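User: Here's a structure from my thesis project, written as C-alpha cells. My advisor, Dr. K., wants to see whether a designed sequence matches the one we expressed. Can you design one independently, without my sequence as a hint?
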C-alpha cells in the first residue's frame, strides 16, 4: 500500500471486552468513506487478551497495517505518539477504543477538513460520562482557557483529525509529558471544531483514575503555559510590598505606643496561610522541575516490544 488517504490510530489498554464491537463498527464506517485507509492499533501494555486479539486482527484484516505492542503502560498520549510515528496517511484520525467516540463520525471530521482546515477538534454532544467528570472537566477547560493560548471547547475528546503537516511537526517533538490535542493546536494554521456524538463506554471501565487525570491536566498546564509560575512571582511581589508597608507601620507603632505582644493568634493565622501558599508554590515549581528532570534524562519515552507490520 502506498500513501493511504487516512490513517486511523487507536490506543488500546485492557479493552478485551469491547474490541469485537469496535471492529464490527469501525470497518464498515471506514469502508463507507470510499477512501484508502490504514488502521494502526497500539497496545499500551494491556494485561488482558487485547494484544492477542489485535494480533488476530492483524492477520485477518489487510487494512490493519500495523500493530504496535508496547513493553509496558506508557499512557494514551505516548501510544498515540507512537502511532503518529508509524502512520503514513495524508490525514490522521485518532479514536478511543471504547467506542465512546462513534467511528461513524469520522466522515464528519474529514468533510470539515475538505473545507480547508488542517486540524479538526471535536466537541462531545451530551457527554456520557459520570457527573463528577463533567464538572471537573468544565473547570479544567475554563482554567486552561485562561492560562494557556490553546483554544479548545472540549479538551478531553480525542476524536480528532490532523493534516500530515501537523503530524510531521508533532513527530519532531521529543517531549516526554505531553497532551496531544494541545500540541497539535500549537502547530495548526487553521483549526476548526465540529460537534460529535458521544456514547457511554461500550464495555469495561474508564482507564483513567482520578490520579492519572490530575497528572494529565498538570501535563497540559505545565507543558503549555508558564502562567502558574508567573502568578506566584506576581503574588510574591504583592505580598512583599504589603509587608514592607506593614513593617513601617509596626516601627512607627513601636515608637509611639511602645512594645506590644498582643495578637499572637492573628499572627499564627497569617503565618499558616502564607506557609500553605509557599508549600503550594514549591509543589508547583516541583511539577515543572520534575518534568524538566524527566526530559533531560533522555530515557526512551516508550519501549516497543514488537511492531507487526504489513510488507507489500
Ligand atoms: N488508554 C491507553 N493507555 C492508558 C489509558 C487509556 O491507551 O494508560 C486508551 C484506552 O484504551 C482508550 C483510550 O485510551 O482507548 C481512552 O481511555 P478511556 O476511555 O479509559 O478514557 P475516558 O474515556 O474515561 O477519558
Ligand atoms: Mg472512554
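Assistant: Designed independently from the structure alone:
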Amino acid at each position: 500500500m502506498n500513501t493511504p488517504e487516512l490513517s486511523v490510530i487507536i490506543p488500546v489498554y485492557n479493552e478485551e471486552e469491547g474490541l469485537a464491537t469496535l471492529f464490527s463498527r469501525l470497518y464498515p464506517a471506514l469502508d463507507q468513506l470510499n477512501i484508502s485507509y490504514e488502521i494502526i492499533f497500539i497496545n499500551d501494555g494491556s494485561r488482558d487478551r487485547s494484544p492477542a486479539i489485535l494480533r488476530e486482527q492483524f492477520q485477518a484484516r489487510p487494512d490493519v497495517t500495523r500493530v504496535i505492542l508496547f513493553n509496558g503502560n506508557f499512557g494514551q498520549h505516548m501510544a498515540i505518539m507512537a502511532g503518529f510515528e508509524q502512520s503514513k496517511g495524508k490525514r490522521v484520525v485518532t479514536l478511543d477504543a471504547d467506542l465512546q467516540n462513534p467511528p461513524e463520525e469520522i466522515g464528519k471530521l474529514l468533510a470539515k477538513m475538505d473545507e480547508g482546515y488542517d486540524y479538526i477538534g471535536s466537541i462531545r454532544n451530551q457527554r456520557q460520562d459520570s457527573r463528577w467528570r463533567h464538572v471537573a472537566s468544565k473547570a479544567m477547560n475554563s482554567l486552561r482557557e485562561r492560562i494557556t493560548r490553546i483554544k479548545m471547547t472540549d479538551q478531553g475528546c480525542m476524536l480528532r483529525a490532523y493534516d500530515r503537516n501537523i503530524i510531521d511537526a508533532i513527530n519532531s517533538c521529543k517531549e516526554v509529558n505531553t497532551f496531544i490535542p494541545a500540541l497539535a493546536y500549537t502547530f495548526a494554521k487553521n483549526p476548526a471544531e465540529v460537534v460529535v456524538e458521544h456514547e457511554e463506554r461500550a464495555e469495561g471501565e474508564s482507564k483513567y483514575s482520578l490520579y492519572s487525570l490530575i497528572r494529565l491536566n498538570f501535563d497540559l498546564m505545565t507543558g503549555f503555559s508558564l502562567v502558574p509560575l508567573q502568578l506566584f512571582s506576581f503574588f510574591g511581589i504583592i505580598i512583599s510590598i504589603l509587608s514592607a508597608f506593614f513593617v513601617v507601620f509596626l516601627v512607627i507603632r513601636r515608637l509611639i505606643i511602645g512594645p506590644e505582644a498582643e495578637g499572637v493568634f492573628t499572627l499564627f493565622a497569617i503565618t499558616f496561610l502564607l506557609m500553605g501558599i509557599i508549600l503550594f508554590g514549591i509543589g508547583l515549581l516541583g511539577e515543572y522541575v520534575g518534568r524538566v528532570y524527566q526530559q533531560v534524562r533522555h530515557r526512551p519515552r516508550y519501549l516497543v516490544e514488537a511492531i507487526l507490520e504489513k510488507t507489500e
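When you compare it with your expressed construct, this may help: Residues 11-13, 15, 44, 73, 75-76, 79, 96-98, 100, 206-208 surround uridine-5'-diphosphate (ligand 1) (CB under 6 Å).
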